[in-house]
Design a protein that fits this description.
It is a single chain. By secondary structure, the chain is of the alpha/beta class. 39% of the residues lie in helices and 17% in strands. It contains 21 helices and 20 strands. It has a six-stranded parallel beta sheet with strand order 3-2-4-5-7-6, sandwiched between helices. Strands 11-10-9-12-13-14 form a six-stranded parallel beta sheet, with helices on both faces. The mean pLDDT is 94.
């Protein structure tokens, strides 16, 4: 059958559909009008109109993180691409599959600093798995198929493709890419699996550390089967708590910002580490102090999908290239020893974790610990929780529990403004599930305009805005290093509930603990996007201490140092 002659824009849209994309997040631009026009004839591809490219990129990143399929983001050249950079960086550090399509200047205008011209290979080269530019219309299917494959292969990540506008207007008769291609995951062979088992059996205080992207529900289930069969304690990486079922007796916590001191000490005591999927990055290793590179003092088994990560920072005693799905499938079949001599070690770690989940008494009118415990006990098992960057996020990290089918979506790169666009994206991907975002006042105002996008597309996430009138994390560091000298961290905020209502969403303000549950139920009953503003005491700087106590401690340290 002869392929019809089509414009590049139509070939690109048909390629997206052929490759399984059903949703794309965009801010329209004249540089890719042919793509927008072609999409009107393919209702299988839903375009979500966003209000800023950073929000669109966050939505695409969250889509990839949640579904395992590349999230698609379409933006215009120059300023649009620059705005999208935050989501591309997030996808890179979070190992999330993503394809970003950027309208570009016409080929005949390149290298003249034409209107909004940028060299995207140079701009995004360090923060993308691959950056390409399609200069011939007939190669669009080839580039698109490669983009989707690169985004999901090995360690997932973002791919950026520049689309010169004249290429999108050109015509060609070319076939669409194949609908789907099956690729076998790299997996440990039997000999390697036996080596893992032998090394585990020699340990007295083993520790499993998991993280990274590319974890499916099946992989998480296999991990649970493996560690529970061997009674091994499991630690999750920063903002990857949903990899391991938190209610499991083998789960002992997460190594993020504000990690439990008892957990940090337990990692120091481990005499063997099995790391699966995680890069063992800066946050998980507490600034590379818990595990000192390049060689640990205890045996390390490191399993990662990207061979380039094995030995990159830490030299493993056994390095295994394998995806989490393939690795856990193999590990789950390993025969556990009849008598695990580390049973008390695992039980002790679990006891420490459960003790850490008990919040300290609150003297104020709004008890965030009590609110988090209520959410932990009452959210549906399949709820999706998105968390932003900031000190407030410690409440959700410390006191909520995660697992599958529920999910935790949060930026491991610490990007502010992530949570609400991510929750919107999650609600579109899974409209039957409750999607709850948690943001600080500073972070919410970076992308809160996406409330308009939520109303327009009919998505109904619920947003908790923790309002303490400051950039809390930076204020904390100010008080630690320059106590009492506040600069550039105080915020004057709007009435967030009134702002939500102005967009057509539900809005409520909660200042007392007892008012939270009625407000939360009203948000659910509203059937629309909702914002609940939690007006915090600024003193509640972390889950462990107050701003005044932190300032006093810093001043005391200063006195001691000067004397």
């Amino acid at each position: 059958m002869t392929n019809p002659t089509r414009t590049g824009g139509r070939i690109l849209v048909n390629s997206l559909v052929a490759l399984g994309a059903d949703t794309a997040f965009c801010v329209a631009g004249e540089s890719y009008l042919e793509v927008l026009d072609a999409a009107t004839d393919r209702p299988e591809l839903r375009l979500i109109t966003c209000r800023q490219e950073g929000g669109a990129a966050f939505m695409a990143e969250a889509w990839g993180k949640l579904t395992g399929r590349p999230g698609v983001c379409m933006v215009t050249r120059g300023p649009g691409a620059c705005n999208a950079a935050i989501g591309i960086h997030t996808a890179f550090q979070d190992s999330s599959p993503m394809v970003v399509l950027i309208g570009h200047v016409a080929r005949g205008h390149l290298d003249r600093e034409a209107f909004q011209e940028i060299d995207y290979r140079q701009m995004f080269g360090p923060v993308a798995k691959w950056v390409g530019q399609i200069d011939r219309v007939e190669r669009i299917p080839e580039y698109m198929a490669r983009a989707f494959r690169v985004a999901t292969a090995g360690r997932p990540g973002p791919v950026v493709l520049a689309l010169p506008e004249d290429v999108l207007r050109d015509k060609a008769a070319v076939a669409d890419p194949a609908t789907a291609c099956d690729f076998a995951d790299a997996a440990p062979d039997a000999d390697t699996a036996d080596k893992v088992a032998v090394m585990l059996r020699t340990a007295r205080r083993p520790l499993v550390m998991v993280g990274g992207g590319h974890w499916s529900d099946d992989a998480s289930a296999d991990l649970k089967r493996f560690v529970e069969g061997w009674n091994l304690p499991v630690v999750c990486a920063f903002r990857r708590q949903d990899i391991m079922e938190n209610d499991s007796p083998c789960y002992i916590g997460d190594l993020g910002t504000g990690a439990a001191p008892t957990l940090v000490e337990r990692v120091k005591q481990a005499d063997m580490i099995l790391a699966i999927g995680t890069r063992l990055g800066e946050t998980m290793t507490q600034g590379y102090t818990l595990l000192t590179p390049p060689r640990l003092s205890v045996p390390l088994i490191h399993i990662h999908a990207d061979a380039g990560e094995l030995g990159r920072v830490y030299q493993p005693d056994l390095g295994v290239q394998a995806t989490p799905a393939a690795a856990t499938r193999t590990l789950a079949d390993l025969r556990a020893p009849g008598d695990c001599r580390w049973a008390d070690w695992t039980a002790g770690g679990r006891a420490d974790y459960e003790a850490w989940q008990v919040p300290a008494p609150c003297n104020g009118t709004l008890d965030l610990g009590a609110i988090m415990l209520w959410l932990r006990d009452n959210l549906p098992d399949d709820a999706i929780i998105t968390n932003d960057a900031g000190n407030f996020s410690g409440w959700g990290h410390r006191f909520l529990r995660y697992g599958r089918p529920g999910r935790q979506l949060a930026p491991a790169n610490g990007a502010m403004g992530y949570a609400f666009p991510a929750a919107l994206s999650a609600k579109l991907a899974s409209p039957q599930r409750l999607c709850l975002s948690m943001s600080g006042d500073g972070g919410f105002l970076m992308t809160g305009q996406e409330l308009a996008s939520a109303i327009q597309c009919g998505a109904a996430p619920i947003a908790l805005v923790f309002n303490n009138g400051m950039y809390g994390t930076i204020r904390m560091h100010q008080e630690q290093r320059f106590p009492g000298r506040v600069s550039a961290t105080s915020l004057t905020n709007p009435d967030f509930a009134a702002l939500a209502r102005a967009y057509g969403a539900f809005g409520a303000v909660v200042e007392r603990t007892e008012d939270f549950v009625p407000a939360f139920q009203a948000a659910i009953d509203s059937g629309t996007a909702a914002v609940i503003e939690l007006r915090m005491d600024p003193e509640m700087i972390t889950t462990r201490t107050t701003l005044s106590a932190m300032r006093a401690a810093a001043l005391e340290r200063g006195k001691s140092a000067s004397s």
